[in-house]
Design brief:
The longest helix is centred in the first third of the chain and has 18 residues. This protein is mainly α and 187 residues long. Helix 3 runs antiparallel to helix 5, helix 4 packs across helix 5 and helix 7 runs parallel beside helix 9. The chain contains 12 helices and no strands. The N terminus and C terminus are likely disordered.
Length: 187
């Protein structure tokens, strides 16, 4: 009897708690490349556009220059044959993912993400977020913890664009954040 992929994942992780699940950078890169190869196999521009959108922040933390090149490749689909775009995209995606994310690149992505919501917050709430950023910059909290604090905002403000980002899927701490629960009590 052969198990489906979801049954295998479920079987593998049923005995683990959130503290035991560790996604490495190598796992992250493999996940993104595997998804790209599915897009490449499909040979549809719509899927490449979706892939680019879903991986924007993931690519931003790895290599912002390559993110721009990848975006330009996708945008050139009316001028260049899709097969050529997919080949070039693969080359640049691999270049982008070879570069290790840094605290600085994560901070940049987090600030971009927070920018989607910041006009909804008071100055004290913005100050609270700045304090979290300071702690992250000083390595007092992890990337996963930062993202677990931001993640509830995606649903609070119904941002489907951000909800689909692989950045949250692959980097966020699986334990819920508590900071932005303060914001929810205002309702």
């Amino acid at each position: 009897m052969q198990l489906s992929e979801s049954e295998m994942v479920s079987k593998d992780f049923t005995h683990l708690n959130a503290d035991q699940i560790q996604v490495t950078e190598k796992d992250t890169v493999k996940f993104v490349l595997d998804r790209f190869f599915q897009v490449k196999k499909a040979k549809r521009i719509r899927e490449l556009v979706e892939f680019q959108a879903m991986n924007k922040y993931m690519l931003m933390v790895h290599n912002q220059e390559e993110l721009k090149i990848l975006g330009n490749l996708v945008a050139s689909h009316k001028k260049i044959p899709l097969s050529d775009i997919l080949d070039k995209y693969e080359d640049h995606l691999k270049i982008a993912l070879k570069k290790e994310p840094t605290i600085k690149t994560h901070l940049n992505a987090m600030m971009h993400i927070f920018g989607h919501f910041s006009n909804h917050f008071s100055q004290s709430e913005k100050d609270l977020f700045d304090e979290l950023l300071r702690q992250f910059k000083e390595s007092k909290i992890t990337t996963g913890k930062m993202l677990s604090e931001i993640h509830p905002l995606i649903y609070r403000f119904n941002s489907t664009y951000l909800a689909r980002q692989t950045y949250f899927l692959l980097y966020a701490d699986t334990r819920p954040g508590i900071l932005f629960a303060v914001f929810n009590n205002k309702n």
